[in-house]
Structure formats: C-alpha cells, structure tokens
Write a structure and sequence with these properties.
This protein is mainly α and 145 residues long. The protein has a domain at 58-144. Helices cover 66% and strands 0% of the residues. Helix 2 (57-75) crosses helix 5 (128-144).
Length: 145
C-alpha cells in the first residue's frame, strides 16, 4: 500500500533540488538595467547631443569617412592581403557605415552611401578590384563635398 503523503526532502530516494532555480537573482534585473542604460544613452546621444560622428550629423559622418579614405588609400596595395593586426582593415570597415549614415541622414550623400555599401561588399568578398575602384569613386565624392 502506498502512502498519499509527499516524500520528505530528507528522503535519500529524492533527487536533489534543481539548480536552475538557485541561480543568481540579480542577473535578470542587472541585464534589464544594462539594456535600459544603453537605450537611454543612445537616445540622449541622438536627440540631445546630436547624431553623427563627433555629434555633427551627416556632414560630420561624411567628413570622417573622407578622412579615413585619405588615410587608407596610402596604406593599401593591390593584391596584398589585408592584415587583421593592422588598423587599415578596421578603418576600411568603418568607411562604409559612416557613408551610409551620412546618406541616411541627408539625401545629398545618397551616392556616397551607395558607394559605402559597395566598399563594404568588396571587403567582405575580398574583391580587390571592386575595393580600389570604389575607393577611387569615394575619393571623387569627397572632393565634391
């Protein structure tokens, strides 16, 4: 005959309590706090300080991209692999999003933004020909600003 009473917690036949519920109780509120802080920081940076590179909007994004273009144009050579230990690859990768940000903020930079997308594609596909032709086109765009 079986007993209708639940087993005692000291019963050796009972498995130990689940450790999933014994985690750190501060993790979820802490994560929520971090996310909320990031959201507030982005909103303040965008609407109070002013968006764009160094707080200057589309013009500053375009200027910063053009400065990077000038810097990397002297640093890269055709058919030479880009080294992840050098800053050039990282600067190249910053140019595309900056150009896109400028185009998103101001339609005067629409072509520049498209060129930024082409540059990003060239980097991701390791297409040296497209990389150099896009950098040349972007340099021309920078001269026209």
């Amino acid at each position: 005959m079986t007993s209708s009473m639940p087993p005692s917690p000291d019963d050796p036949s009972m498995p130990p309590p689940s450790s999933a519920r014994q985690g750190k109780p501060w993790v979820v509120p802490g994560a929520i706090g971090v996310v909320a802080g990031l959201v507030v920081g982005v909103l303040i940076g965008t609407f109070v300080v002013g968006g764009g590179a160094a707080g200057g909007g589309a013009d500053a994004d375009a200027r910063t991209a053009c400065q990077y273009i000038d810097t990397v144009s002297d640093d890269i050579e055709p058919d030479v692999a880009l080294d992840l230990e050098e800053p050039t690859i990282w600067r190249l990768q910053a140019i595309g999003p900056l150009a896109t940000a400028a185009a998103t903020s101001d339609e005067r930079y629409e072509t520049f933004g498209e060129q930024g997308g082409d540059l990003y594609s060239a980097i991701s596909r390791l297409d040296h020909e497209l990389l150099f032709s896009t950098l040349e086109a972007m340099q021309e765009s920078c001269r026209s600003f």
